[in-house]
Amino acid sequence: MATDLAPHSTRLVLDAPLPLDSGQALDRVEIAYETYGTLNADGSNAILIFHALTGDQYVASQHPRTGKPGWWSRMVGPGKPIDTDRFHVVCANVIGGCLGSTGPASADAQGKPLGMGFPVITIRDMVRAQVALLDALGIGRLYAVVGGSMGGMLALSLAANFPERAERVLAIATTARHSAQNIAFHEVGRQAIMADPNWQSGEYYGTGKAPDAGLAVARMAAHITYLSEAGLTEKFGRRLQDREAKSFGFDADFQVESYLRYQGLSFVDRFDANSYLYITRAMDYFDLAEEHGGKLADAFRGTPARFCLVSFDTDWLYPTSESRNVVHALNAVAAPVSFVELSAPYGHDSFLLDVPALDRVIKGFLE
Amino acid sequence: MATDLAPHSTRLVLDAPLPLDSGQALDRVEIAYETYGTLNADGSNAILIFHALTGDQYVASQHPRTGKPGWWSRMVGPGKPIDTDRFHVVCANVIGGCLGSTGPASADAQGKPLGMGFPVITIRDMVRAQVALLDALGIGRLYAVVGGSMGGMLALSLAANFPERAERVLAIATTARHSAQNIAFHEVGRQAIMADPNWQSGEYYGTGKAPDAGLAVARMAAHITYLSEAGLTEKFGRRLQDREAKSFGFDADFQVESYLRYQGLSFVDRFDANSYLYITRAMDYFDLAEEHGGKLADAFRGTPARFCLVSFDTDWLYPTSESRNVVHALNAVAAPVSFVELSAPYGHDSFLLDVPALDRVIKGFLE
What we know:
2 copies of one chain form a homodimer. Chain A is α/β, with parallel strands linked by helices and 367 residues long. In chain A, 34% of the residues lie in helices and 14% in strands. Chain A folds into 2 domains: 10-178 and 287-365, Rossmann fold (3-Layer(aba) Sandwich); 183-278, Orthogonal Bundle (Rna Polymerase Sigma Factor, Chain: A). The first copy, chain A, has an 8-stranded mixed β-sheet with strand order 1-4-8-5-9-10-11-12, sandwiched between helices. Chain A has a two-stranded antiparallel sheet with strand order 2-3. The first copy, chain A, has a two-stranded parallel sheet with strand order 6-7. The model of chain A is unreliable at 1-7 (pLDDT under 50).
């Protein structure tokens, strides 16, 4: 995809270099973000929403490339569970991303795209960038920080590393560390991208060729992990796609094949392969306990925030046991936490879909 | 990989064309097979073992390419659960395969590799070919047919379609039909192969280039499904590979990454990408109920065989519920069946690994 910024996103340049966990620093970091609702006089009604791996800042506004409604427009808006009549909502593209924030497609000082010259970043680095954004926007303490999936990792990381910055922490369908299986699925995706000759060691910008085929395969593999087996069976089963009988060929005979191919193909129109490499790497590196001496409870010791953890019973990517680990750690430091496992058929993607119980939990937690 | 036959496998050419479910027929089908033990005078001690997707006929003999022991040498041999002092064991490469039986690398009448000109085949077609092999070998009724994973599908298909040919049917870690999720994972693998420019629509034989990168990615994705999440965590967790700290790069920092890359790279030395396409397609087409009017029980109506089904509690590729479906169908037609779910930490791959309880079950069923 191209590197131009979506026209109606606001972009801010951080005035200080951003220190990174790798020991490097990023100069002139740009952050593209969207806001909704009005910040009140004492700045006490701000909610920061962190997006997921392939999400973006368009949480409740039309996506500039796909033309689709924001990825959480069912949740964010006037009168909605995250009520923009009441709250000032901020959502920013993570660094490493490809929707306007500094990432591998950004230019170096000579105007050349960084590509693999972009430093490997962490979830904590992404959080640091957004805390700097909050500083620039004059937002001290958040009413709440909210995120699902990778966004939940960022929310937990903010709570652990910037404990004074959020009164409430809502982490949905997430984990405090990436498991071996999580890493394995991401590694398949990275290898698929890097195996694509058009990847050219990441220097494909401006060549007219991008590793679309590899990125599509990466997306297909990941997409399976976002859905439950039962959900796939209910949605597709073994039904054939626009035909009466099997073709005895390699066309997409089954609806599930056709669906997956579409998911792969449409993804490459809105996402950059190098960003996919960098963001998956950041997620794989994520281990909140390791960052805090090996004990997860220590990540939250002394936290003044209230927490809410939500998992879904059919989520096998970040199953309920992962949320429960976080809850146990919060219990160990006597942090106020509520936890609910919701029943929904959609697997990990449930946090993005029509699950009215989630609306109620979010609305209740933000009261 | 090359198309030469492993030197010490026996090869037999079927004298009649093999009819296929697609309506086509295959002429001059060659079948490469291994045998162990001696067929007794009345031909009553033969056991046919069906191999899995990436398995082969070298069930208990050294693999000619890798030099490794046979994939089930722990189970098959003198004094072993499938005792070659007592039984005459036959194991043949499936048609569509790449270890000597007719497949996409085989030559057409003009001596040109068939490639994608090879017809799409089914599990039942693979069984038909091996029943023809049994005919040619003078084996009427098998003492038992045995298979795990895809081999289990072939065993069930033989029981359903050639009910007089086996006294005992042992199906391990398998299913009577491929689910939407099973199809989805296979489709990712096929798309990875077809996205590799070296695939060249399947016409890569003799070009010196094969779609190794795509096949390796396919293998990596599939390999994750063969292991349990708990097994991966126990085996690798988040341990780093030969380093003290994360590299902040894209090397294989984690042991699980290094392991998966090795699985992908080593696989391409012993397997042909087109065979992977054809065999996964056959598995995705497999639905034993559909073949028999939509009701699984009807597939087994009137069967004279005794059945044994084995599943593993950590197998999420073909979970216990799939074996239970088969057991219920057999119960519905009053076929004698025993069923056991074994506890083993290795996921789907348990049937190939050191699970002493499986040895006992197999030995007991073959008494």
